[in-house]
Structure formats: structure tokens, C-alpha cells
Write a structure and sequence with these properties.
Blueprint: H1 13-66, E1 74-76, E2 81-84, E3 87-92, E4 107-111, E5 124-127, E6 143-145, E7 148-149, E8 153-159, E9 169-173, E10 177-182, E11 185-189, E12 206-209, E13 212-222, E14 230-240, E15 243-253
Antiparallel strand pairs: 1-2, 2-10, 3-9, 4-8, 5-6, 5-9, 7-8, 10-11, 11-12, 13-14, 14-15
Length: 257
């Protein structure tokens, strides 16, 4: 009778190590794909958030600055702010006003074609302005405080104007407003002191965006003339989730002297 020993097949140590190495390589490659896909998704989400933040901030800035009186736009705070006076209304005045050239006595009212106030409260009256320096500061030569207003008349403290408007136009303006880049924040300041040389960083503001920084000069202004519009260039970079995107926006403010 033949006695045979049964032999059980198994893995050798070399085969076992080979399998472990192969599985480790597969795991590393697979993890790399997963990490890469996750990073790509995170970057896409961060960029989308940046674009959304920038779009909302720049659209608001563009909309409000376009409603400013061209000669009221100025750069302050060492380039960190753009300040302006929104137009509340305006129209045509009927008779030439006394100015420094015609030597007529000061007056306290203008008669106008029918007009309305479409925005804000019309705090100031401006006639013949040609530069922001004629609107700001303690003694503006092309700006007066509005005492009262009807649809055909505006009254103000007695004064003589620097000049008449070329088109005999007047503007009703609101308190100065400003957009500023302070401390990594893009801010909107709704009410500023017209007599101050700079925007007060400690005054009330609306936060437009965090993690914002200047890309070169944040605000670059090409000032108006009697035959040229105002061009404001905004250069701001936004950061989110390790991603940074630079945005440039040009705002054209039509000049109607």
C-alpha cells in the first residue's frame, strides 16, 4: 500500500513581499489621483469665490462712481482711496450768474428750468467747476450749500462764482463718498467731510470684500477737462484659499460741463 503525503500550495516570502509592494504602489498612485482631483476642485471653488466677490465689488463701485460729478472725483489717502460727490440732480439755469470775471454783486438764488432730485438729498449746488480743488476744502469757489430748493429755483448763502458753466448747467450734489483699500479690506464710506483732505478710516463704512490688496496703484485717475471725460482705473487683487486673482476695471464718467 502506497502512502503519499499531501502538499498544500502557498505564497513564498518573496511573493508576499512583491504583492505588498504592488498594492502599496497602487494605493500611492490612487491617492495621488484623489488628492489631485480634490486640490483641483478646491482651486476651482476658490477661483469661483474670488470671481464672485470681485464682480459684486467692482460692479457696485462702477455703478456708484458713474453717478458722480466728474470734477469731484479725486484720489486721497496716498492713493488708497477714490473720493467723489454723487449727482443728486441738475439742469439748466436761466440767467448768467455773477462770477469773478463780470464783477456783478453776489447773489443768493438761481432760477432754473424745471428739474428734480433723483438721488439723495441734494446738499450742495455746483456751477462751473473745473477741478476737484474747487469743490473740496474750506472755501470752495464752485460749490455752495443748498438752503432751499423748488423745481425752478435753488437758494444758497450769498456768493460770487468762479465762472459760469459753458452750457449754463448746474449740479445738485450729495455728501462726498469714497471707496478705499485699508488693511486688506475694500471699503465703501457713505458720508465724508467735504472740508477734509483725506478720508477718515475710522468713520462708518460698508465692507465690500476681505483679503483685498493693491495691484500696483489701486486707483489711477485721468482727470476731466471741458472736452474730455474722466477715466478711473481700478487695480485690485483678491485672495481666497491660497488663490490670488488680479482684476482691472475702467470706469468712464461722462463730463457735461
Amino acid at each position: 500500500m502506497c502512502r503519499c503525503r499531501s502538499r498544500q500550495a502557498g505564497f513564498s516570502l518573496v511573493e508576499l513581499i512583491t504583492v505588498i509592494v504592488v498594492l502599496a504602489l497602487v494605493a500611492i498612485i490612487g491617492t495621488g489621483f484623489i488628492v489631485s482631483a480634490t486640490d483641483s476642485y478646491r482651486q476651482t471653488q476658490a477661483r469661483a469665490a474670488l470671481v464672485n466677490t470681485a464682480r459684486q465689488a467692482l460692479e457696485r463701485m462702477t455703478r456708484q462712481i458713474r453717478g458722480a460729478m466728474p470734477y469731484s472725483v479725486r484720489i486721497t489717502n496716498s492713493g488708497d482711496c477714490v473720493e467723489f460727490m454723487p449727482v443728486a440732480g441738475g439742469g439748466i439755469y436761466r440767467e448768467p450768474v455773477p462770477d469773478v470775471a463780470n464783477g456783478a454783486p453776489p447773489h443768493t438764488a438761481i432760477q432754473t428750468a424745471p428739474h428734480s432730485v433723483d438721488f439723495g438729498t441734494a446738499d450742495y449746488l455746483s456751477i462751473g467747476a473745473m477741478d476737484s480743488g474747487e469743490l473740496y476744502g474750506g472755501s470752495p469757489v464752485s460749490l455752495a450749500l443748498v438752503n432751499s430748493r423748488t423745481t425752478t429755483e435753488v437758494t444758497f448763502p450769498s456768493r460770487t462764482w468762479q465762472r459760469n458753466s459753458i452750457g449754463r448747467r448746474f449740479f445738485l450734489l450729495n455728501q462726498p463718498q469714497a471707496f478705499c483699500l485699508f488693511g486688506g479690506q475694500l471699503r465703501f464710506y457713505p458720508a465724508q467731510d467735504r472740508t477734509a483732505a483725506n478720508v477718515d478710516p475710522g468713520s462708518d463704512f460698508d465692507l465690500l470684500a476681505r483679503n483685498a490688496q493693491a495691484s500696483g496703484s489701486p486707483f489711477v485717475l485721468s482727470a476731466a477737462s471741458d472736452s474730455r471725460n474722466v477715466l478711473l482705473q481700478i487695480n485690485v487683487a483678491f485672495s481666497e484659499g491660497g488663490e490670488t486673482m488680479i482684476f482691472e476695471q475702467e470706469v468712464l464718467i461722462r463730463n457735461v460741463p
